[in-house]
Design goal:
transport, iron, iron-sulfur, 2 helices, ET_Ferredoxin, 4 strands, alpha+beta, 79 residues, 4Fe4S_Fe-S-bd, two-stranded antiparallel sheet, 19% helix, binds iron/sulfur cluster
Length: 79
């Protein structure tokens, strides 16, 4: 299983991840990215389906600040 979470403290609101993986990432009022898939609200607790793994990895690889995290267990963040 894979889970993802955005470290907003280091996100620079560049817009890359939402363009690469719009089903997984979207932006808050400040333009900072967060995980929206399945209503995740950037808690990192929603399992990302296997068919989205390519988009997920592309988004991680494309983030200029390494703010997109991936793990095989839930992040349990507060969003
Ligand atoms: Fe933020 Fe990285 Fe997404 Fe750019 S690609 S908006 S820096 S999380």
């Amino acid at each position: 299983a894979k889970y993802t979470w955005v470290e907003k403290d280091t996100c620079i609101a560049c817009g890359a991840c939402g363009a690469t993986a719009p089903d997984i990432y979207d932006y808050d009022d400040e333009g900072l990215a967060g995980v929206v898939y399945g209503g995740d609200d950037n808690t990192g607790n929603t399992e990302i389906p296997e068919e989205m793994y390519d988009d997920l990895q592309d988004a991680v690889d494309g983030c200029p600040t390494d703010s997109i995290k991936i793990a095989d267990c839930p992040f349990h963040k507060e969003g």
